[in-house]
Task: structure prediction
Amino acid sequence: MKIIHTADWHIGKVLHRQDLHEDITLFFDWLILFIKTENIDLLLISGDIFDLANPSNRDLATYYKMLYRLSQTETKVIITGGNHDSISLLDAPSVLLDVLNITIIGGAKSNAEEEVIPYIDPKGVMQCVVLAVPFLRDKDLRLSLPVGEMIDKALHTEQAIKSHYDNLIDICTQKYQPMVPIIAMGHFYMKGAITSDSERDIHIGNLSGLDSNIIHHSIDYFALGHIHKPQKINNKENIRYCGSPLFLDFSERDYAKKIILLEINAQKITDIKSVPIPKFRDVIKLAGTLDEIKIKLSMYKNIYPLPAFLELEVIENVFDILKIQQLEDLKAESVSPDYRILKSRISFTKDIESEKITNSYSKSISELSPMDVFRKKLTESAVVEPSFSDLSEIYHLLLEELNQ
Ligand SMILES: [Mn+2]
Result:
């Protein structure tokens, strides 16, 4: 049998005021074609289906249209919720979607057995068991461990995630005594993963992830979501982030976008490989003096279906307020079918008095996360450790509450 592992679709994502509707539509067209040509049996989507907990009507329509198209194939679909997703929004149509061979696990289930899903092929033979674990929220993690004295939060999170999976393995062993591969889905930070700028912190500072060395030995493949750069963890072939199919941030411009294809033969995983997703749009950064950038812009030729997204980084020698205005003019005047300028910054290498201005131009508010702004505020207010960490943690918990 063949399985696809994908995640982090982020339907509805807006990148510097440009929505990525056309990008996700092209990705869906390609994925449907791939599923049909490769005769895929099972599609796993490991969280962050939507970018926001309250997606627009158009984004909901895009999602349901995709589910409808998937239901027209022979493929079984398992979708788990991520930290961006609303549990109730994902779960609401689950009874209907079950009929269409689409299983939704929006949030952790009070009955853990519901997260253990055997895949039975059309001949009635069990081919694998999927542990469909969504993003585990604080309340789920608290439940996973007995109430005791307060221990280190990072350690507690790690132990709680581990025990959630260990419990599912126990259920799986008792119920199915499986001789088939066990595939775990997950949406969290696995230690050692390389992050980009577009993931929202899930657990404080990303320090409190799970160590890949302590995951249960019975798990044959870990289908991870949350980190947007495709990667194996600690060089292990069977623990992978597939990454996001779209470019969600300029920091991701050098990543190839991928899905992961697994093959199971005679009840063993026989092949795990990544399949590149065609590039629908160029995402590039042009750097240099204003004049150099103007030349680069005039020479730029787009070869992809959608206009390129550009980031301009102007580096001038001596401070000159006119250059700042000229950059604004360039952005306003650059109307091209080949590209759109989404982001720009200007800095001056010499001139001491420019330092203040360079700083104020270096980051606009749209580039900062709420957490960045809060930390800046703490620094400005001369808050020091340990209050700095405590307040950051409380603020982070508030953000998490808001995003749920
Ligand atoms: Mn994500």
